[in-house]
Amino acid sequence: MKSNRNIFTVSIRSIAFAWQTNRKILLLLIFLNLFQGSVVYLQFTSFSAIVDEIIRIKQGVSSTRELIQSAVILGLSFLVPTIVGNIVSFYRNKFRLQQGVQLELYKIEKQSALDIGTIESSSYQNLLRGAKEWGSGSVLNLQDFIFTSATSFAGIITSIGILWALNRWLVLFAALAAAPVYFFYKKYSMEVFRIRYLSLDDHRVIGNRISHFEELQKAVDVILLKLKDWFKEQIRDRKVSFNEKIIAAEQKKSLSYAVLSLWYLLFLFAAIALMTKEALAGSIAVGGLLLAFNTYTRFYQTINGYIESISFTEEAARYAARWFELFETEPKIRSRKDAVRISFTTAPLIEFKNVSFRYPNEEGETPLVLQSLSFTIRPGEKIAIVGINGSGKTTLIKLLCRIYDPTEGNIYINGTDLRDIYLEDWQSAIGILFQDFPVYNLTVRESIGVGRISETPDATQEERLRQAAHFSGADEFITSYDQLIWKEFKDGVDLSKGQHQRLAVARMFYRNALVTILDEPTASIDAVTEEKIFNSLEKHMEGKTVILITHRFSTVKNADKILMLEHGRIIEQGSHKELMLLRGQYEALFTMQAKRYLENED
Ligand SMILES: Nc1ncnc2c1ncn2[C@@H]1O[C@H](COP(=O)(O)OP(=O)(O)OP(=O)(O)O)[C@@H](O)[C@H]1O
Predict the structure, then answer these.
(1) Which tens digits make up the pLDDT trace of 194-219?
(2) Residue 119 C-alpha to ligand 1 middle, in angstroms?
(3) What is the tens place of the pLDDT at every residue in 35-80?
(4) Where is this chain primarily localised (predicted)?
(5) Does domain 350-437+507-601 match CATH 3.60.15.10?
(6) pLDDT score of 528
(7) Chain center to CA of 66
(8) Who is most buried in 12, 171, 186, 538, counting CB within 10 A?
(9) Which residue out of 355, 359, 361 has the highest number of ligand 1 atoms within 8 Å of its CB and is therefore the one to mutate?
(10) HSE-CB for 587 with a 13 A CA cutoff
(11) Which of 369, 407, 519, 563 to mutate to test ligand 1, by most ligand atoms within 8 A of the CB atom?
């Protein structure tokens, strides 16, 4: 836990962020906060001057002119801070809104640069959860506390000056009265932070369980499987345990306050005794006595507030640090500085040479899920990858897309190691449809169009969109390309799982990548449409490489090459004919599936 991350560094980063967002408002706020901190003492001095003037007028040694002067100053000392306070609060709110947007956008920018391995890691997920839980508000709160500290600081300096002038002992009494406050606040805020930090995993579980009541697909299961009470219990237990810890910390805080109040009273009495003695001895006037008392109590409150805000600043800094850690998280997979720029115009030669892979894990070494894979995919070949669940098919294509790098061995693209190729160049040459593909809540046109978002619209675009929808069979249910696929919105609709998948396949046809990778693209699609899709792939993807992962052996018969995986190894490879002649695993599984179809026909 990097809880003791340098508070100073985080505060500087937070102010630097504010500076980047709007330096004029930042400087204005700092100035106005400093002004607010010191102006209050003008009220005390002008009020004590009025009291002394009244006494002097009664004694006949002063005129009402001085009294009016002091009254005007007193009036202004009340009026000006009120106006300034309103200005501060206006600009502060404006600044919070401006920075809130900037922070969210910056976070998105940083997140989208990360690789999947980093995103999957539990440390990153905790960081994300922490940042989400405390929101961008933690960075902004930190600034608020810095501003409050500036106000308090100005107040302390002013009051020290006044108290020092009246009686130096007053400064010492007030300082001693306030000193323990810091340690109490610090201890308490550390404890709350620790509780929150240690319960991050619990909060992620709570968030997940709550999602079962909020997300449609999950909510249906909750109702049908009667999971409500079971999930509710899990949520309640975790929340109750978290609350108990926070309440215990709150209790300790309240007790500390009681002790602190007694301590403060002790020094207040000492200060009153000292000032009364001075007044009786005639060394200060009545107005001076009032000024001393007001300044003393205000000094204590200010120093108390200052310590409190330092302590809160520390607390806010601990939370804000999560945001900055998030910003600092660097992707593990990225282009090398001297990466080769390649503008792919034709399907490339792909070679796997002795590739082995294990998933990265922070807790320790995981088993190899791919072992010594070697194979070649020639430009424009249609490849099928088959194998039982967990044999490593999806992992293999993740390596090909460079979502991960191999643990051992190399992948060559046109003879260049994939790690040496500029990542974006390679990414723009490939198109991938994963088995758990995302559903876009966009219009039909956009849902297909995102397959090639960087493309500038041209006259053929609409035609190509419609063609892609035709190849995937999506055109059969599309009534309008402007239809919004989002049931929760007015006029929005939802689609069946298979229809969603047809749209996703259309997206891939529209992308028309040099290397198209399809991971079980027809799992939810009916047999007739499946046949149509595979025919379109063969006919319209000529010259392009297509890699297909599937469990349906009937769909791979026409592939140029079939790779059969088992426990992360290629156990057979060749065309359908070659593998059938081999009479190995492929032949056995193919025959089994074919037999089942025929039996079903009988
Ligand atoms: N992100 C991950 N972190 C750790 N292990 C993983 C991860 N993804 C997959 N695995 C493991 O890697 C192995 C291969 O998984 P993979 O998804 O590649 O199999 P598959 O052949 O595509 O399976 P399926 O046919 O079920 O889609 C499995 O044992 C799985 O548990």
Answers:
(1) 887 788 788 888 988 999 998 877 88
(2) 16
(3) 888 887 888 888 888 888 888 888 877 778 878 888 888 888 889 8
(4) membrane
(5) no
(6) 87
(7) 61
(8) 171
(9) 359
(10) 9
(11) 369
